[in-house]
């Protein structure tokens, strides 16, 4: 007791008689020409940056209780002061200019089915979902300028993607960490180049959270900045493996691009972790399907013969992953064989069992296709009405030959045309699609016959299982109160970044002529998440929004609940792939704390008994 009192006494004297050191760490969002200072009382003290855009400094003062950060120009003149009044605390976190320090809990959507895949590994865990990363890429100026001013280049008289990479040093700052690595940046995707706010990919020389490739999706057409996130979460909640991520503020050289999602790309490490649960596992063959509706070509999965050139480089399939240790990089025959085999097996199955309604047909199909996973994928596509997905146009999907299960499965990606309704799409029947939860994707077959899915759904067992899956998801996962809680928590996470994000693209100083700018507003972010619509106003923006997100969820959910109202939801037997899958990674650090608390409680109990 005595010792404690003396210590207390000394520290009081110390505090009264001496100035104290106050430490500050803050991320600047204002580009390279500016620095950051701390303002307290009438004083402004500059901070310094060894690790741009992080500014740090220690200020010796008698007492700093309230403070703000200010943006300073090169001559030290204040040009912006944040609206937030901060209260000093000894908690050492990297703050962000103009953003409060907040901890948002993102609730999970209900999971009506058990885990089907690992969805991550110890060395490749899902990104935390309640962090906004601050990303600054300092890139070779010549190359960066060339890329950002020329998203497309001419190949003869054909416009093609500019896939050039610029070398960069990439800094990623989270509240409690600073990561830095060399690497490169490039624009990815094709459609996203229609906008001035490009989507960027980055290759990293040093791993970031186990990743060597990360993608930044621009969400350029979505005033809510939430649709892709929600669609991703829907797939995830039914264990259809997807690339997921969280949000990031992106700055490249002196250009402030705004708020993006930072997420995985579909690559070998992702497959190994999300499908097989271990970064060291064997990987199978993955192909992406692309179609060009309405004229085509379509990646219709028809068997075209055994010659790989009928599949390779014809604008439909793209070989994405294979095991480079066993397959030679030049061995095109071996690389395309698994895809061709799949189409051949399906072709045979259609020919042999196409009109056979017995269970034998299903038994034969599940020998090579993960039917259960595909039906869950289709159910989510139905609820979000995916206008560039598998069922509707056989696009934005990968087919993966899973060497562990010895079957094939489908994986969706790119969800920028979901939860928004029809936009004059020629193959959609405007009159019926909103209430139609079974034929919405296949109403108009004049230019494209849905050979693959139509042949599946000829079998009553498959349609019945789809109905049960859709019935359960539309009642449990897609329940409006659950979805609203999820998207509102995401809105809480990003709200302070919304106006800044919309402003960033208006002032972005790149010479790209072709790119649209969507001049959305903060109010539209709030209202379009519920029931508010955005009209088509071509002088202001390229995209409208004829449904609010919650409006869509309620309307579409009700339609699919009505469609499945007579379905026996207790008849919940997986049609294939009924495995027990464990979570192969330790989840959030919260569990760790819980364990420690338990140990402490037990030891206290022990002490109690000893006394
Ligand atoms: C930053 O400063 C340089 C040199 O003064 C200038 O050329 C450049 O335009 C400035 N950048 C911005 C975004 O203001
Ligand atoms: C800071 O917040 C104000 C008000 O919300 C906004 O106008 C300004 O653009 C913000 N600046 C930055 C760098 O976020
Ligand atoms: C930037 O890239 C160009 C070639 O694209 C190269 O000539 C130049 O040396 C690079 N600059 C730096 C600073 O590395
Ligand atoms: C980019 O970096 C790689 C290695 O890090 C190097 O081989 C290449 O020459 C660099 N390119 C440019 C244009 O600087
Ligand atoms: C069906 O799609 C074609 C385009 O492939 C379109 O020309 C036609 O008008 C559509 N039919 C209906 C009834 O919407």
From TrEMBL:
Report the PANTHER family cross-referenced here.
INNER SPORE COAT PROTEIN H (PTHR40050:SF1)
Protein name, as recorded: Coth-domain-containing protein
Database matches in InterPro entries: Spore_coat_CotH_CotH2/3/7
- Highest taxon of source: Eukaryota
Name the Pfam families for this protein: CotH (PF08757)
Signal peptide bounds: 1-19
* Keyword terms: Signal
Q: Does the keyword Signal apply?
A: yes
